[in-house]
Amino acid sequence: MDYRHIALEGGAEFGGQMAMPDRLCIELAGGPDAPIVIIPTAAAPDNNHERAGENGRRWFTSLGAANVDTVPLIDRASAADPAITGALADARLIYLLGGFPGYLCETLSDTPAWETI
User: Fold this and answer.
1) 92-112 pLDDT, tens per residue?
2) CA-CA to 22 of 20 to 30 Å: which in 8, 32, 55, 103?
3) Does some domain include residue 31?
4) Closest CA to 61 of 19, 96, 114
5) Helix axes 49-62, 19-29, angle to 10 degrees
6) pLDDT tens, position by position, 7-20
7) Degrees (nearest 5) of the Cα angle 30, 35, 38?
8) Is 88 helix (H, G, I), strand (E, B) or coil?
9) Residues 6 or more apart from 53 whose CB is under 8 A from it?
10) What range defines the domain where residue 56 resides?
11) Contact between residue 41 and residue 104 where contact means Cβ atoms under 8 Å apart
């Protein structure tokens, strides 16, 4: 059985204090080559999703991950995009960035993306 791991972190998650748990996430997902998908949804309300997603990609790469992508899941329309749900289906670790948790919940609730996650 394939498992998908999900991490939800927030509050300066890339400041260095989460290195140990994030390395563990990489190992649980299958090691450095495991596909990791960064979801920047919670950073979208203040138009910070691109920067936050890139910070996440760089962070996991610095921890040794070799297969890290950010998906532009930023609203309910993108939560139904087959390209995004396909990327989520292939991921072994799905990393939900911090920001606005209420927006994250509203955006993902009852969507194909959430069903895939």
Assistant:
1) 999 999 899 999 999 999 999
2) 103
3) no
4) 19
5) 80
6) 777 666 777 788 99
7) 120
8) helix
9) 38, 40, 43, 70, 72, 97
10) 1-10+44-117
11) yes
